Amino acid sequence: MTLSVSDLAVSFGGVTALDGVSFAVRPGSITSVIGPNGAGKTTAFNAITGYLRPTGGRITYDGAALSGLRPSAIARRGIVRTFQRTSIFPSLSVADNVLTGLHLRSTAGFFDVLAGRRRLTAEESSLAADADGIIAFVGLGHRHDEIASALPYGEQRLVELALALAARPRVLLLDEPGAGMTGVEKTVVSELIRKVREQGVTILLVEHDMRMVMGISDTVIVLNHGRVIAEGTPGEIQAHPDVIRAYLGAQHGPA
Amino acid sequence: MDQLLQHLVNGLVLGGTYALLGIGLTLIFGLMNVVNFAHGEFYTLGAYVAFAGIALAGLNFNLAILAAIVVGAALGWLCEVTLLRPLRNESIDTTMLVMIGVWIAMQNGELLVWGGVAKSIPHPYPTAPLVMGPVAIAPLRIIVLVLAVGLIASSWLLIHQTKLGRAMRATFQDRDTAALMGVSIGRVHAATFAFGSALASAAGALLGPVFLAYPSMGDLASLKAFSVVILGGLGNLTGATVGGLLLGIAEELGAGYISSGYRDAVGFVIIILVLLLRPSGLFARQERIG
Amino acid sequence: MAQPEALLRLEDLHAGYGHVPALRGLDLLVAPGELVCLIGANGAGKTSALRAISGLLPPSRGRIVFADREIQNTAPAEILKAGIAHCPEGRRVFPYLTVEENLSMGAYVRRDRSAITADVEQVCTHFPILAERRRQMAGTLSGGEQQMLAIARALMARPRLILFDEPSLGLAPTIVESTFAIIADIRRRGTTVLMVEQNAYAALRMADRAYVMETGRIVLEGAARDLLADDHVRRAYLGA
Amino acid sequence: MRALGRGLLAAALVTLPLWLADPYYLHVAIMAGIFGVLALSLNLLLGYAGQLSLGHAAFFGIGAYTSALLTLKCLWSFWPALAAAIALAAAAGWLIGRLALKLRGAYFVLVTISFAGVISLVSVNWIELTNGPLGLPGVPAPDLGPWSLRTKPAYYYLVLSGVALSYAVCRRLVRSRIGRAFVALRENEPLAESIGVDVTHYLVLAAVVSAAMAGLGGSLYAHYTRFVSPEVFLFTYTVTMVIMVIAGGKGTLAGPLVGAVLFTVLPEALRAAASWQWQMLAYGLLLVLLVFFLPRGIVPQIVASFSGHPRSAPGSRAPLR
User: Fold this and answer.
1) What is the residue-level pLDDT of chain C in tens, covering all 240 positions?
2) A159 neighbors A144 (Cβ within 8 angstroms)
3) B276 located within any domain
């Protein structure tokens, strides 16, 4: 049940975005990928989830290759992501957003639907119950029927998280879940991430807010210029000279 | 072989005007991201302005073409300012629907003003074809080709040698940074739409006397313009020029050697094939970075 | 309460992208002739601050005062004419314009044709590499050359204040050094500089004063020399 | 209250030939019904899956020609010809769906227009089969067992059944996970993929069902007017469908039907007052005005003004991609 990336390379028109990146995400852990702007974090996410085709390397989950699969097929294997920019179905209500997110938990095909089978009704009501459960889990019960795009920003990000959870992830990739949030909201999100992990979901996180990263991660992977420059516990990473150099520049040397 | 040369020459005349249509549309589509279904209506407009100028107002041929250009530019500018500017932040489908509305309204407006009967546009050139070896060509067609080439060259100069053209190219390549340089995006858009419409109008005024002017002539013109843009790639002037000439020649050859009934199918087939096989156009290069 | 020594002053500035707040009450001051740097972790709002100053991101609240004039509701072209040039993140040269055309885009708002021509020549003597590549498409230049061009293009507006956004981003270390040298030189010649930079230590070494930003506001400010020694900076970046 | 309204509406529709016996009014009702089927069909693709097809007249025409040719040349009876018309239109929809999969927005629109253009040129030029521009006269009226559906009231009921069937199909699809997948693609395609929605499957499905329904409309049209010519491919038909859907409210179930009735009855009512050109001119201006002033359409507007706040029924400007 390990998500592992080996020797992953991505380049766009001659510009190398990832250059031989390898890491493994321990099942049940919260692992964060950090690095300065342009280090290749989101590129790695896009490659893992099938949104872009790597130029080299292997991505496997539970031993099976993910490379070459389409995003929907990767989601079907339990690897679900969120996006850096808020990504919701804007004109649907919160409930309909989550109901849509439950796509993989339902089975009705075209002819079932046309025939209006009884089984369908049962499935629909169980989906509605699932949706309510997820909405309550992320704490949006009071927003159940509101249009998602009309919610405040912080709550939109919770809708996004609910959508991802609805797809029943085994590995959840979160791309900057705390971006643009206030301190309080970040605490709420961190708490939610911990609760998701407690349910056995492995978490891979890209995040800029170091307090959040250091607070919840088991392992931190640092990317710089498309390579892994360090991997370790939060404490190790904070003291790692290469990491400090990547973030702050050389402390001493010619001005 | 003789036939082939004749087809090539006819194709070139047709292609010159297609290139004008294509250049206009490729700028509008590429720079403003507006799918301008009314483009062909500016072509029709040009033909009728030429008709009105020559047959009714007694203008001379060149002045009538100039009038078509001026009217096309003015109406294009008006269209941008009143209809497209308020919708600049809307999706591409919204502006597309509006332009479909403009198309229908303009076409039926023309039908109301001019009636459904095709008008023949008088011109001062002799009708007897010039025979050069195996090729016979009407003097009017030579004039049309010369004027089309002249207009293509002036568009090229405008885009590459003037401050406005530089601002247009910069906006196309990176709208945000162009704004940062102080370019007024609104003004560039209005100028682009006016310019593109003027070229379409010119094409209509040029080709109108060769064939006839009738209200639905713009439908096919729009289609050809889109084929040219798709052949040449968005915002690509050279692509539009070469694409226009290629389309003109391909149509002549198709009509000559396959069946004249399928002449207009060439454009459709080009659109389908190019979009499916090479969506960025045959002459595409990556114009936009980031 | 006018503070006469300020060339640029931001007061309680709020701005965002749709529902996403980026600036949450930013206060900042740049005095004439200063080199001020704005540092902070990714996503802290540094780029948004520069975009608000140059008119690309209209603020929802607060004031921006430049040379005693409020400019928070002014179009980018007017701000540029007033004397603020912005050298954007990632260089953003126009790839299919020649080097020379890029330079003249920098002077787009100016009307003094002959002076512009003279300035192009002057920039070319100042950056010989650009003179060599004058007729080349900017997209064919190397990263370092593009950075020179972006800086030169900003200078073409003859600004009183230049905003630099991450000038070192994605450049090789030797190029980074020469870029910083050029920026220092620009300041020496009398142009005020406000710089956003992720390479915090390098930025602090060359700046007079610095601000540390976090989630859309300033959390720390002071003389660059003091901040260099302050552990707060490291904490802002690494959350330690 | 709602149930009562629905019951009344159903009763009115079923008894319509009794109290609206004038054949001219029935003719208008039949045309409204045929356009209702077409508008429902376009709405599935445009309103729910978010893909604007401007080649919908092609599916309509394919249905009309298939049905006409099979009954005229192969002497099939109406019902199998109808089934074949639906099947062939669906196959064309599959082709377009597959072909255009990589293309979105403007490019999808252009491919659909071109497809309709090619089909239309074939209908003009393949004279041995289609009789060219002269068209195919004498398409037989349908029979139902021993009864001929030649009369207007009988044909009205046939068309009404067609509308009811199409509406039921749309309604079931839209309220299922399939409809939710369509909407997900319209609203945010990358996000839809991330939650496991297979883009290929659902876009092709939307195109096939939509085309099949347009084929049904074409067959109903052919056997009603008893004449098919290349005019069925006219862009005007497509534009009329688009206006009906946009005006009625795209992405709603009732919207296309409201639009279809409105834009069949209105031109008929105006026929005395204005020539066809004026009507078309008005159509064009109306489309522009709709985009500016009623971007969500009539039905969502009414719903919103009754419930006081916008419902989850989509159709604001932004979601259409």
Assistant:
1) 444 578 999 999 999 987 788 899 999 999 999 999 998 877 788 999 999 999 999 999 999 999 999 999 999 999 999 999 999 988 899 999 999 999 999 999 999 989 999 999 998 888 888 999 999 999 899 888 999 999 999 999 999 999 999 998 878 878 888 899 999 999 999 999 999 988 888 888 899 999 998 888 898 899 988 888 877 777 777 665
2) no
3) no
Answer whether residue D176 is part of any domain.
Answer: yes
Question: Is residue D66 in a domain?
Answer: yes
DSSP line for A164-175? HHHT--SEEEEE
Evaluate whether residue B251 is within a structural domain: no
How many residue pairs bridge chain A and chain C with CB atoms within 8 Å of each other?
77
The answer to whether the CB atoms of A153 and C41 lie below 8 A apart is no
pTM over cut 0.90: no
Would you call A129 an interface residue with chain D, using a CB distance cutoff of 8 Å? no
d(CA C22, CA C15): 6
Q: What letter represents residue D36's amino acid?
A: G
Do A and C make contact, counting contact as 3+ CB pairs within 8 angstroms? yes
Q: Which residues of A touch D196 (CB under 8 A)?
A: 72, 75-76, 80, 103-104, 167
Interface touch B177/C104, C-beta < 8 Å: no
For residue B118, what are the domain limits?
19-218
Of the candidates B170, B180, B287, the beta carbon closest to that of C76 is on: B180
Kindly determine whether residue C77 and residue B289, on different chains, have CB atoms separated by under 8 Å: no
Contacts of D221 (CB under 8 A, 6+ apart): D34, D60, D63, D64, D232
Domain count, chain B: 1
The count of structural domains within chain D is 1
Token output for B206 = 């040029």
State yes or no: chains C and D have 3 or more CB pairs below 8 A.
Answer: no
Is position D4 within any domain?
no
Q: Is residue B282 part of a domain?
A: no
Q: Which chains border D (3 or more CB–CB pairs < 8 Å)?
A: A, B
Range of the domain at D164: 22-238
Chain D positions touching B224 (Cβ under 8 A) are: none
What residues contact D272, with CB distance under 8 A and at least 6 apart? Answer: none
